[in-house]
Amino acid sequence: MALRHYGAVRRLHDVLAGPGFHLLLCGPVDAWDENVVAGLRRRFDGLVHAHRISAAPAADGLRDPDGAALRRLGARPTAQYLVRPDGHIGYRSAGNDLDAVQRRLTTWISGRATTVASP
User: Fold this and answer.
1) Residue 113 CB-half CA count within 13 A
2) In 3D, which of 3, 14, 13 has the Cα closest to residue 56?
3) Model-level pTM?
4) What are the tens digits of pLDDT across the range 51-108?
5) Eight-state DSSP code of residue 117
6) Are 117 and 39 in contact (CB under 8 A)?
7) Could you give the CA distance from residue 68 to residue 74 in angstroms, rounded to a whole number?
8) Which residues is 106 bridged to in the sheet?
9) Whole-angstrom distance, CA of residue 86 vs CA of residue 2
10) What pLDDT sits at residue 59?
């Protein structure tokens, strides 16, 4: 799946190749509370990388201008995927509630976090 990132074409596979967990937030740019996403990044410092995939341009997001990747990922209107370090999908869900993602991460990374809360 080809996406645009800061004007350059990026394949989703390449984005997910880096170490750690990758959280894909698929859908409208404003579907997730940025404070909650930032809190999750802080609690799992360096272990979780959140990536927004949207048809609309976003400052740090991955743009899917024709919506092909979003359709393939089932983002109707939103979806979230947690990709484990081994490249397999560890969790997927429709909607934008990050509580279940946080619980999964807490289970896998014991002792690193307790909750995801807005600051």
Assistant:
1) 23
2) 3
3) 0.84
4) 999 998 877 789 998 999 999 888 889 999 999 999 999 999 999 999 999 998 988 8
5) -
6) yes
7) 10
8) none
9) 21
10) 74
